[in-house]
Amino acid sequence: MQLVFASNNKNKIKEIQQILPQSIIILSLEDIGCLEEIPETSNTIEGNAILKANYVTQKYGYDCFADDTGLEVEALNGEPGVYSARYAGEQCDSDNNMIKLLDALSSKTNRKASFKTVIALNKEGEQHLFTGTAPGKITMEKSGHQGFGYDPIFQPEGYQETFAEMDSALKNTISHRAIATKQLIAFLKTEK
């Protein structure tokens, strides 16, 4: 089975490919000739996943899935949430985002947070949503060099290390994206 994954984020594509069975071949946006930036204008994580999936299906005619992920911090009323990728501004990077988040939490004792991923699948004219969450907390400083995004400052519940300190095999069994992707896989298996 071939499915378009509506992303050009090489880190995300690699992570998804490691989770999916070999029987599902992923095509990136670049693979289908979609080089434009897909607008993410929704104010919800679900909404952005749906926007990306619908864009590819409507403009390119492919069955596809798209995801959107946000880090929701309890003491910041769910921020950065849907704005996680551009928390420190449009031209920011992961380091800037982490610095801003650690700064925003510097006077807070509540460090609870959770990652949330929503996958929107458009297949054979129907849309299905899959949601994965990973509860944990924000550490006091960055630690580790694996992963991407906020991984160096996110310590999942029940573990002593951050996502960035874990090997990918462990992260890909417990992460928000892994949980949502496993739901997607289970659904695709029933569709055969």
Question: TL;DR of this structure?
Answer:
The protein is 31% helix and 24% strand.
What does this 3D model show about the protein?
The protein is built from five helices and seven strands; from the N terminus they run βαβαββαβββαα. It is of the alpha/beta class and 192 residues long. The longest helix is centred in the N-terminal third of the chain and has 16 residues, at 45-60. It is globular and about 50 Å long.
Q: Percentage of helical residues?
A: 25-40%
Low-confidence stretches: none
Task: Kindly report how far apart the N and C termini lie.
Answer: 9 Å
Q: What is the domain tally?
A: 1
The structure class reads alpha/beta
Radius of gyration: 16 Å
Q: The CATH topology, please? A: Maf protein
What proportion of the residues form beta strands (DSSP E)? 15-25%
Characterize the overall form. Answer: globular
Q: Number of helical runs? A: 5
The major pleated sheet works out as: 7 strands, mixed
What is the fold's blueprint, element by element?
Elements: E1 2-5, H1 10-19, E2 25-27, H2 45-60, E3 64-73, E4 80-81, H3 94-104, E5 112-123, E6 126-138, E7 154-156, H4 168-174, H5 176-191
Features:
single chain, 192 residues, seven-stranded mixed β-sheet, globular
